[in-house]
Every structure is written in structure tokens, then in C-alpha cells.
Write a structure and sequence with these properties.
Blueprint: H1 8-24, H2 39-46, E1 55-58, H3 64-69, H4 77-80, E2 81-89, E3 92-96, H5 105-114, E4 120-123, H6 129-141, E5 146-149, H7 153-162, E6 167-171, H8 172-180, E7 185-189, E8 217-223, H9 228-242, H10 245-251, E9 257-261, H11 263-284
Parallel strand pairs: 4-5, 4-6
Antiparallel strand pairs: 1-8, 2-8, 2-9, 3-6, 3-7
Helix pairs in contact: 1-9, 6-11
Amino acid sequence: MPFAPGGSVDVLARLMAPRLAEQLRQDVIVENRTGAAGLIAAENVAQSPPNGLSLLVASGGQVTIAAALASNLTFDPMRDLVPVTHLVDTPYVFVVGPTLRQPTLRELVAEARANPGKITYASPGIGSVTHLMMELLNQQTGARFEHVPYRGTAQAMADMIAGRVDMTLSSIASVKPQLDRGELRPVGTAGARRAAELPNVPSTAELGIEGMDVRVWIGLVTRAGTPEATIARLDEASRKVLSQTDLQERLAPLGLVPVGDGPQAFGATLADDAARWRQAVARGNITLN
């Protein structure tokens, strides 16, 4: 687990672990190994024996974004890690603080085109999903939203509510408390369709903003060279767990949408994701320095 205890991805892993243990008839232990944007955990799995006993609960930051952005890694995320199961998708929403009055993302894009750099956005750091998706929005629309990187989400949320930064893009689960309290306002969701949690908020596709149908995924990956039969067993067990109604009911309030794609389909998702971020990083001349 590359994230700290208590977040939605950690909760996902801890909900799945006992259910996976039941399916696999062996212990499943969640070990939090944080640091370096999750790359410490990814490196640990990439250097583990290829036997399927070490799994990474991965997101783009440790695999596809890392492959596009991080140049000093001791491993190659797209070569040394292989897909097991696409667990869930995490819908993302554009939210604004009290400084902005535009009703939708389309109007914000128009303002950011007319006045480049005037509208600021917070992210959890350079190379984060938020940073790269906002850079993709800039590239797709010709707008320029000004990046204000933070070291995490807590201070970013506080500054947004206080009006010191204008907007952000985040998972729905991360900003749901602020939306419920009216401290932040949603102006659009990233993707082709509206999010079930925010049925009154238009999607980027509805607003005529193309190229933002980005799947923010969470999945299991393991060390390359792991036998296909072992991966198939892990995939089958994971999908059986994801199909359980009680688990789905626990995931819904977290904004996590079960997927359950196996290694082949998940591998195609990773390849598309990696290509997208390589292009966005090159076009935006984005570096970690």
C-alpha cells in the first residue's frame, strides 16, 4: 500500500484483504510503505521475487505517470510491474472556492484563455494526477490555469476555502465533506458521463471539452515474470471479491467504482494511460525539478 492509513485506497485494500484471504485460503496482509509519491512501495514490489506473493495496490502515480515523468528510478514501472486486476475507478471533479463565480468549467476555461495565469489551481504536488490532468486541460483547451503545488491535500483544501487559491481537481471522495458543507462548489466532472455521486454536475464531454475522458484507476500489479497461472488465480479471486454486494455497498460512499478487468484489459488501460502521460509531459515540458 503506497498511501498512508485512512485514505480511500487504504480502506479499499483493508476491505478486500480478508475477503481475498478467504478466496485464496492464505493470509493477505496490508503493509503501508509510504514515501516518494508511492514509489518506495512500487520499487519494493518490482524487486520482490516473481511469485505473486507481493502485490502493489497501484495508481497511475506509481506506474504510468512514473514511467512518463520520473527519470532517476531504479526500476522501469512499465517493464518490471505487470497487471493483475483493475480494481476500481475513482471519478474526479473540478471544484472551486469562494473566489470564483463562473457556473461551469466551460466558463472557467474561457476566462483562463482570456486571462492566462489569472486562475490558480492547487495540486498535491508536481507530477500528481491533479497536476497532469490540469496540464492536459490546458493543452486541450488553449487555456492556462496557474499551478500552485502543495505537499499534500490538507493545506491545499484550507487555502481553497480561505480563497488563497481558486480551484482544484480531486477525487470526489476527497472533497465530498467540503462539498456537503458548501465550502467548495463542483463545476464539472472529468470524463464522458456524469458521476453517480454528483448527478447534477455536467461532465467535460457534455461541456464540449474533449480529451479529458481519463480513467483514474486503482489496480493490483505484481513483479514481472510471475507465472501466468499465479496471476490468473489472483485475478479470479479479486474479481470474485469485487462482485460481492456488501463490498460494493462499502465502496460506494468512497466514490470507488468497481471494475474487475483482468490482466489483458487492464494492461491495455495501462498502455493507453502511459502514452497519454508521456505526450502530456513532453508537450508541457514538465519535470520534477
